[in-house]
Design a protein that fits this description.
Distance between the termini: 146 Å
Strand order of the largest sheet: 3-4-5-6-7
Helix content: 55-70%
Order of helices and strands: HHEEEEEEHEH
Number of strands: 7
Structural class: alpha+beta
Largest sheet: 5 strands, mixed
Number of helices: 4
Strand content: 15-25%
């Protein structure tokens, strides 16, 4: 004979068993979800780190490329400077040899007389500081084109410096006769060409020559062109 109470108790036990099983499954799912979340977080961190590393590597590569480009530009400028200097020296040597040849054949008068022709204009001397920086130059207005630039005289040379960087220079040597200078070299950094630096430096040498009663013999190609173009240099020009 069936016992309904006993059957109900069995059903209740089965339901409790199913419930317990469901709780266990839920717990397992929660654990799995937690593991998945941890993996996702780690994956996200790995991806962000990889992205950051990639960006840093790209930045480093760009910086290296830029540095190499600047170094290459500087090297090319230095090579060009050296070549121009060599040409100026060769031209100076050639012309001076020619002048001394004329002196040997014709006597000293051919050079000395030329050096004494014309009137030398008296202009107040430049004021220089102990460091060689020109504190008050009559033509220094052209330096205002370049913020922070300084005009410096060192021996028979003038330099335009921007910090420690030389961006322009002009040089001369005594001779070929007394009271004459041979202007043998002019250079401007490629970055600053097309401005007034070269002309300004030339004007400084011309002004100094007038102050000291010197004639200028231009063997530098730039200076020679300017002397031919600008009649204001006639009074200091020692022609070959």
């Amino acid at each position: 004979m069936r016992n309904p109470i006993k059957e109900l108790m069995g059903i209740k036990d089965s339901i409790n068993g199913v419930k317990n099983t469901m709780d266990e499954i839920k717990t397992m799912l929660d654990d799995v979800k937690g593991d998945v979340d941890d993996v996702q977080q780690k994956l996200q961190g790995t991806m962000e780190h990889a992205k950051s590393t990639s960006e840093k590597a790209k930045l480093s590569a760009d910086q290296l490329k830029q540095a190499l480009g600047e170094a290459s530009t500087g090297l090319n400028a230095s090579k060009q400077h050296i070549e121009l200097t060599k040409k100026d020296i060769q031209q100076t040597t050639k012309v001076i040899k020619g002048l001394f040849g004329k002196v040997s054949n014709n006597g000293h008068a051919s050079i000395s007389d030329t050096a004494n022709n014309g009137q030398t204009q008296a202009i107040p001397a430049q004021v220089t500081s102990s460091s060689g920086v020109l504190a008050d130059s009559h033509t220094s207005s052209w330096l205002q084109d370049i913020e922070g630039a300084q005009l410096i005289k060192e021996g028979p040379a003038y330099f335009v410096k921007l910090g420690e960087r030389v961006i322009g220079e002009i040089t001369y040597i005594p001779g070929p006769e007394n009271d004459t200078w041979t202007l043998n070299h002019t250079y401007v950094d490629p970055q600053f060409r097309g401005g007034r630096i070269a002309k300004g430096l030339l004007d400084e040498v011309v002004h100094a020559a007038r102050v000291e009663g010197k004639k200028i013999f231009p063997t530098c190609s730039y200076a020679l062109v300017q002397f031919k173009r600008d009649r204001s240099y006639e009074d200091v020009w020692l022609r070959a």
